[in-house]
Write a structure and sequence with these properties.
single chain, 267 residues, alpha/beta, TIM Barrel, 8-stranded parallel β-barrel, 11 helices
Amino acid sequence: MTVTELRACKQRGERFAMLTAYDFTTASALDCAGIPVLLVGDTLGIFVQGHSTTLPVTLEAMIYHCEMVSRAVKQALVVGDMPFGTYNSVTSGVDNAVRIMKAGGAHAVKFEGPKLELTRQLTDLGVPVMGHLGLTPQAYHQLGGNKVQARTRDAADRLVEDAQALEEAGAFALVLEAVPTEAARRVTAALGIPTIGIGAGPYCDGQVLVSTEMLGLKGGESPRFAKRYAELRGAIVDAAAAFATEVRSGAYPDATHSYNWALKESA
């Protein structure tokens, strides 16, 4: 998958999936499943590192996880998130985006908000840019939490304007997070580049979920839009408990799982 092919998907009316990936093993499995776009999201701060927000994620951590994912894939487009504080200026944004691609092996970068000049400069340098509008989790404290955005007609108008400006600046795709269905429909219809929804309804060109939630690895409740396609947390708990029980009882390891070679006399 390339950014050019992703745009062609929209032109052909073909919807596509995007999932987050943070490590080699998971990325390899998702790539084998045919997922065309893998996002090394700054959500790793929550689902891998155990923070309550994405804000503590560092550039070094992002590069580290991008390296693992990019080594795993054979087909998917790998997009690396730019962490909070790594694109405060155009200069720092360009330098850090180049590092995510060169050191991390990502094929593209994503950052939040209508950063038009940064988008233009990166595009001119050959760095593909995925935009992100609507709920921008890196502005968690400014927004007062993870709340649905663009809920009024005026706000939806601004969302369309920002999306069109990002497309004009060179973005190849746009994530729309936590916006009303009608607002996402308007943006999708107004753009020639694909939109990728997360909590944005059915009219986007693609859909993205956090793989940890999609696979049922996360305990507790998930957001309303996060459908679970498996319940792997329960399977892991059951498997680990069964292993511990067999170790305590002496059932593991048995003859099948041991090297039963006769010892030879020393030379």
